[in-house]
TrEMBL record:
Keywords: 4Fe-4S, Electron transport, Iron, Iron-sulfur, Metal-binding, Repeat, Transport. It holds the Pfam family Fer4_7. One of its GO terms (molecular function) is metal ion binding. It comes from Vreelandella hamiltonii. Coiled coil: none annotated. This is 4Fe-4S ferredoxin. NCBIfam families: di_4Fe-4S_YfhL. The lineage of its organism: Bacteria, Pseudomonadati, Pseudomonadota, Gammaproteobacteria, Oceanospirillales.
């Protein structure tokens, strides 16, 4: 699954630089995650780095975008090959 940022986001700016795929960017009101670039850090780290640094725990899995570990790894390969 891709991750998502909920409206509990306080715009603290700590998640964006942690994303190895540049999937996080400022949105209209809060930060947003591009699900086409989010691999939950698969291929880079053992755990999603944005979740590790978020002080308010507002980055859950996106239930609208279920993906297997294999799908996340394939997405990682495509992203890093570009």
């Amino acid at each position: 699954m891709a991750l998502m940022i909920t409206d509990e986001c306080i715009n603290c700016d700590v998640c964006e630089p942690e994303c190895p795929n540049d999937a996080i960017s400022p949105g209209e009101e809060i930060y947003v995650i591009n699900p086409n670039l989010c691999t939950e850090c698969v291929g880079h780290f053992d755990e999603p780095q944005c979740q590790q640094v978020c002080p308010v725990d507002c980055i859950p899995l996106d239930p609208e975008r279920p993906e297997t570990q294999e799908q996340l790894m394939e997405k990682y390969r495509i992203i890093t090959a570009a």
